Amino acid sequence: MKATPLSNCERRFLLRAIEERKRLDGRQCYDYRNVRISFGADYGCCIVELGKTRVLAQVSCELVPPKPNRPTEGILFFNLELSPMAAPGFEPGRQSELLVKLNRLIERCLRNSKCIDTESLCVVAGEKVWQIRLDLHLLNHDGNIIDAASIAGIVALCHFRRPDVSVQGEEVTVYTPEERDPVPLSIHHMPICVSFAFFQQGTYLLVDPSEREECVMDGLLVIAMNKHREICTIQSSGGIMLVQDQVLRCSKITAVKVAEITELIQKALENDQKVRKEGGKFGFAESIPNQKITAFKMDSAAVDTNNVEEQAEEIITKADPPSEAFAKPILHTPGTAQIGEGIENSWGDLEESEREEAAEEEGESEAAAFECREMETEDTSTMRETKKDEPIVLSDSEEEEVVILEPQELPKKTRTQTNSKQENTSKKAFNKRRKKKRAAR
Fold it and tell me: Contact 137/81 with Cβ under 8 angstroms?
């Protein structure tokens, strides 16, 4: 997936803002974004945030045979990865031109500057040396990857501890951290890269360009320097011609920025070492701010329990008296009731006319039931008389006995018809009476 290009309107807007000495994030031309360093639970693991650009660094080591031409020196290996998680324009498993350029610049900054003592990584000359591997992974891209990667790399190397070893004859023993304390790497100085973006053929200069500013810049100048004002490497790209005064001005700005970042790195390393010695909590989870949901932390608030009773009495006296509570419901209309706090939940009584109607309905239903019972008794008596006169015919078969009974459906039909007629007449009479009473109202 290709990165989304800037539109012409955005490009003109950015260039116009740079001409007016303004930046989208409110910084001045020579301002650097905030640098935040957080360490993991293991040695040699850290995350560096340069604004919204985030880089994860991890250092590992192993015993390997040395190179034939350098039998007494250890091996350094650096690798930077740009994943699609950082930006949609990065493709996995593909060496882009930007990735190749960044890897070469990091190697020149950290290896060619001789910031790490490689001879101290030798265990047995010509046989076994330590290979230090630095893996850098870009988590989020918001411009100026090389600066964030260089800071993360040197911080991870300073924070890393390799296992202690002992050599007895030809036997090499590697001790665990529980048996012996790990040994830090021997680092002479800390080279840090500072990037400068040029616009309109070097007319305008910005320090620490963002992603959008990198899309409209004409050229880029990267200077790697340590706090002793020693330039470790310098690289210019973009095809612009720089004057000597511009390079000198950039080097002076680099010296100031490198001194500030080096002091920040040393303080972060000292704080982490102090927390680990005191047995406090450390790691990425502890470095998350408390305001975020993923922190699972809540500041404890002190509660004063002195004179609680007196304070409660004052609150009660100052409070308004409670409203009057009705023990019985207020019936606004018959058949309804008011339900609420301090009021009994009940329903109102029916009117006298409704009571009379209910009583009449009960009486009529009882009379209809009594008539139905009499009709049933008469039907059963007639059925018994007819059954006495009827003969029983036995079949010749041995399996079953057949009883022939003549069906008498006429009395049943008459009974059901009479019952339905009585019910209809009673209902009609009841409805007439109810309509008269309602009309009288």
Answer: yes
- Cβ contacts of residue 102 below 8 Å, gap of 6+? 80, 82, 145, 146, 149
The predicted model scores a pTM of 0.64
CB 175 within 8 A of CB 213: no
CA distances to 122, 132, 318, 381 from 64, in Å: 10, 10, 81, 116
C-alpha dihedral sign at 347, 350, 351, 352: negative
Which residue type occupies 312?
Answer: A
- For position 343, what pLDDT does the model report? 47
Q: Residue 421's pLDDT is what?
A: 57
Tell me the longest C-alpha to C-alpha distance in the chain: 141
Q: How many Cβ atoms from other residues are within 10 Å of residue 127's Cβ?
A: 14
Query: Can you spell out the DSSP letters for 9-34?
Result: HHHHHHHHHHHTT--TTS--TTPPPP
Cβ distance 133 to 59 under 8 Å?
yes
- How far apart, in whole angstroms, are the C-alpha atoms of residue 198 and residue 239? 11
Q: What is the pLDDT of residue 342?
A: 47
Q: Take residue 116 and report the two structure tokens written for it.
A: 């790490």
Bridge-based pairing of strands 219-225 and 35-39 is unpaired
CB of 204 within 8 A of CB of 198? yes
Distance CA 366, CA 125 (A): 118
CB burial of 296-308 (b: ≥16 within 10 Å; e: otherwise) equals eeeeeeeeeeeee
Report the chain (441 residues): mean pLDDT per 10 consecutive residues.
Answer: 80 91 89 91 91 93 91 92 85 82 92 90 90 93 92 94 88 88 91 92 89 90 93 88 89 94 93 85 64 53 73 80 56 56 48 62 68 67 53 47 50 49 66 71 61
Cα–Cα distance, 155 to 36 (Å, whole number): 12
Q: Tokens for 340?
A: 């609420």
Whole-number Å distance between alpha carbons of 156 and 135: 10
Angle subtended by helix axes 352-389 and 410-440, to nearest 10: 170
In the block, residue with structure tokens 């680092």 = 187
In the three-class reduction of DSSP (H, G, I as helix; E, B as strand; rest coil), residue 323 is classed as coil
Residue with tokens 């301002």: 31
Q: Which of 144, 133, 141, 148 has the alpha carbon at shortest distance from 47?
A: 148
Alpha helix (H) residue ranges in 68-195 = 97-110, 145-159
